[in-house]
Automatic annotation (TrEMBL):
PANTHER family registered for this protein in UniProt: ARGININOSUCCINATE LYASE
Family: Belongs to the lyase 1 family. Argininosuccinate lyase subfamily.
InterPro entries listed in its UniProt record: Arg_succ_lyase_C, Argininosuccinate_lyase, Fumarase/histidase_N, Fumarate_lyase_CS, Fumarate_lyase_fam, Fumarate_lyase_N, L-Aspartase-like
Matching SUPFAM superfamilies: L-aspartase-like
Cellular component, GO annotation: cytosol
Organism whose genome encodes this protein: Exocentrus adspersus
BP terms from Gene Ontology: L-arginine biosynthetic process via ornithine
Domain Fumarate lyase N-terminal per the UniProt entry, residue ranges: 9-303
NCBIfam families according to UniProt: argH
Molecular function GO labels: argininosuccinate lyase activity
Protein name: Argininosuccinate lyase
Domain Argininosuccinate lyase C-terminal: 366-433
Length: 461
């Protein structure tokens, strides 16, 4: 009989070695050793408050757990074959250190409520780390945007040149996406910070543990209200994985832009050597591998989300062993996201923007919308003005010239509303500066965006 197992009392035959290997999660969940220990210390004190542990026993348990934590931290904790998971390992080692009091710690508690508590504690700490990386990237973008406001470039729709914009306005479009990601992360953290401990295996805690006080001890904002829901709830993991997928998508889109902009066909930016690689065959190559890896990992984050959602899809109530995959999904996603946020910040910080190349990519055909706006300001209804501007483009194409090279007479043949002041339209700076409404690409609007984002960063430190 395998007496070393927490659940082994009713079994007479040994567990199959292949199942032992599949069932064992210590290699993954040992990352939560500190959260598991802190949760156990708080639970010991809760047991003391209802006289299931003495003061001396709680002191022994807490002192012993501090030793266990130190062993993990110093890398000297010895994981044994029978250590199925982090909970088993910590309890086994605690018993070795302090003896009988360790065997009283688990009363009323299940690994079902213990593990979800550990994960929430781990996520609460580490998602704040993720937010720091996000905010660092936003800060890096803001620094560039504030120092490069004069650079003009084409704005694109359908990857076709559309309208002139400021380079800083383009950069800030990514900053706003990331700011939204940070805001969403705060909302996820609020939902995570609800304590499930005290739910037992599924029916609750029979010893009238003061869960509200226990939650306060562990800095939770509240407690779960249904034990069955609490032990099976992995919505917070799914939500984190989806959130990570969105961040990955935002980083992937930024990376895709810079991959395109760094090509010889564009040459808007040059990726720094420290974030580029070369070719083993072609000496002239500068490959944007940093950006390509960001793009690739962004896709894999979504794959992880889909995979875990399928785990949850048809589970019966309440806890099922399928949920053991939650920690691998959580840790893998977290690690990947940290790595690409760090690389993205470094790539953005060190890249060189080639302002002349950006400006030389502008052409007067991009001012066709401005021609329509010119006519609108003359009192022409927009739909008619848009049609007339299209005729201007068609006439220029027919003559094989730019729209700015059409004579006034040729323009008047399309509409008598054209006058000599049409010449003011053929100016990229003027075009950009007309978009002064909040959210536009005019310098005043760009500076307003930078101020807003900096205020948000300072407010949320």
């Amino acid at each position: 009989m395998e007496n070393h197992k927490l659940w082994g009392g009713r079994f007479t035959d040994a567990t199959s070695p292949c199942l032992e290997k599949l069932n064992r999660s210590i290699d993954v969940d040992k990352r939560m050793y500190e959260e598991d220990i802190e949760g156990s210390k708080a639970y010991a004190k809760a047991l003391q408050s209802i006289r299931l542990l003495t003061v001396e026993e709680v002191e022994a348990i807490c002192d012993g757990l501090d030793i266990v934590k130190r062993e993990w931290k110093e890398g000297v904790f010895e994981v044994l074959h029978e250590d199925e998971d982090i909970h088993t390992a910590n309890e086994r080692r605690l018993k070795e250190l302090i003896g009988a009091p360790a065997t009283k710690l688990h009363v009323g508690r299940s690994r079902n409520d213990q593990v979800v508590t550990d994960m929430k504690l781990w996520m609460r700490l580490n998602l704040r780390r993720l937010d720091e990386y996000l905010r660092n990237l936003i800060s890096t973008i803001l620094y560039r945007a504030s120092h490069e406001t004069e650079i003009m470039m084409p704005g694109y729709t359908h990857l076709q040149r559309a309208q002139p914009v400021r380079w800083s306005h383009y950069l800030l479009s990514h900053a706003w996406n990331l700011k939204n990601d940070s805001d969403r992360l705060g909302e996820i953290l609020r939902r995570i910070n609800v304590m499930p401990l005290g739910s037992g295996a599924l029916a609750g805690n029979p010893f009238n543990i003061d869960r509200i006080n226990l939650a306060a001890t562990l800095d939770f904002d509240g407690i779960t209200q249904n034990s069955m829901q609490a032990v099976s709830d992995r919505d917070f993991i799914a939500e984190f994985l989806f959130w990570s997928s969105m961040v990955g998508i935002h980083l992937s889109r930024l990376a895709e832009d810079f991959i395109i902009y760094s090509s010889k066909e564009f040459e808007f930016v040059t990726i720094d050597d420290s974030y580029s690689t070369g070719s083993s065959l072609m000496p002239q190559k500068r490959n944007p591998d940093s950006l390509e890896l960001i793009r690739s990992i962004g896709g894999s984050l979504f794959g992880q989300c889909c995979s875990f959602m399928m785990v949850l899809k048809s589970l019966p109530s309440t806890y099922n062993k399928d949920l053991q995959s939650d920690k691998e999904a959580m840790f893998t996603t977290f690690d990947k996201l940290i790595s690409i946020l760090e690389v993205t910040a470094g790539t953005v910080k060190t890249l060189k923007v080639n302002s002349e190349k950006c400006k030389s990519a502008l052409n007067f055909e991009m001012l066709a919308t401005d021609v329509a706006y010119y006519l609108v300001r003359k009192g022409v209804p927009f739909r008619e003005a848009h049609h007339l501007a299209g005729q201007v483009v068609a006439k220029a194409e027919d003559k094989g010239v730019s729209i700015c090279d059409l004579t006034l007479e040729e323009l008047k043949s399309i509409s008598n509303n054209f006058g000599v002041d049409i010449g003011k339209v053929w100016n990229y700076e003027n075009s950009i500066e007309q978009y002064q409404a909040i959210g536009g690409t005019a310098k005043s609007s760009v500076l307003r965006q930078i101020k807003e984002l900096n205020s948000w960063l300072e407010k949320n430190i």
